[in-house]
Design goal:
Length: about 60
C-alpha cells in the first residue's frame, strides 16, 4: 500500500502523526515531512485511519 501527500496543502495540525508517528513523520515545523509513504505490511488499517484523520484531505491512497 502506498500513500501520496500534497505537502503544500498541509496545515501542520499533526492529526496524522497522532494516529501513527511512525507512518506520518513531521518536519521541525510540524508539517508532514514526506511526499510518499510505503506502508509496511500490517500497518494498512493505521494508514487508512491517518488518511481519514487529515481534515485537509491531503493524504491519498494511490495503491492498495
Ligand atoms: S493531518 Fe493532514 S494537515 Fe495535519 S499534519 Fe497531517 S497531513 Fe498535515
Amino acid at each position: 500500500m502506498k500513500l501520496r501527500i500534497d505537502r503544500q496543502g498541509c496545515v501542520g495540525n499533526a492529526r496524522c502523526h497522532a494516529v501513527s508517528a511512525e507512518l506520518f513523520p513531521l518536519d521541525e515545523d510540524g508539517y508532514i515531512a514526506v511526499e510518499e509513504i510505503e506502508v509496511p505490511p500490517g500497518m494498512e488499517e493505521l494508514a487508512r485511519r491517518g488518511v481519514r484523520a487529515c481534515p485537509e484531505r491531503v493524504i491519498q491512497i494511490v495503491e492498495e
